[in-house]
Amino acid sequence: TRAEVENLHVTPRQIITPQANKPVMGIVQDTLTAVRKMTKRDVFLDKEQMMNILMHLPVWDGKMPIPAILKPKPLWTGKQVFSLIIPGNVNMIRTHSTHPDDEDNGPYKWISPGDTKVMVEHGELVTGILCKKTLGTSAGSLLHICFLELGHEECGLFYGNIQTVVNNWLLLEGHSI
């Protein structure tokens, strides 16, 4: 019927498959490469770059976050930029695909030297480098949690915002394979 066709063609409703209750859509290719590169510890943006990136974020409230580094000039991290994309009050603890098993207890239980422990608290990326495991089609990924907690419409906007902001950052940064 017409109602069935209209509901089946709403793409954000098809993010999670009922067969396995996990996402069938995820961040891939250029965007996934850029997200990994953006969330590394050594990525910093100056005020001009930050303003150019924020221009592409449709949900931005107009307030600049406090820079991670104040002197000699204000610098923002890639994690701060990605935190502006994350919707709502989402929480997640996962590990990067290269996370070593011996860092899961002892002094490295909550933070890892290689930045492979991914932690999102109240919609802010606190630690970790995002990868296919944390943004891809696996159960428990950030996209899966957003879908479950915030619904299909908000998750669809999240997908779009990641694509837009991160790909525009990649234009500033540059990358070749």
Automatic annotation (TrEMBL):
Q: Which family does it belong to?
A: Belongs to the RNA polymerase beta' chain family.
Q: Quote one Gene Ontology molecular function term.
A: DNA-directed RNA polymerase activity
Q: Which domain of life is it from?
A: Eukaryota
Please give the InterPro entries that the UniProt record associates with this protein.
DNA-dir_RpoC_beta_prime, RNA_pol_Rpb1_3, RNA_pol_Rpb1_3_sf
Signal peptide extent: none
Entry keywords, A to Z: DNA-directed RNA polymerase, Nucleotidyltransferase, Transcription, Transferase
Q: Which GO terms describe its biological process?
A: DNA-templated transcription
State what protein this is by name: DNA-directed RNA polymerase
Cite a single Pfam family from the UniProt record.
RNA_pol_Rpb1_3
Q: Name one GO cellular component term.
A: RNA polymerase II, core complex
For this protein, the record's PANTHER family field holds: DNA-DIRECTED RNA POLYMERASE, DNA-DIRECTED RNA POLYMERASE II SUBUNIT RPB1
Its Enzyme Commission number(s) read 2.7.7.6
What region holds the RNA polymerase Rpb1 domain?
A: 14-177
Q: Which SUPFAM superfamilies match?
A: beta and beta-prime subunits of DNA dependent RNA-polymerase
Q: Which organism is it from?
A: Triatoma infestans
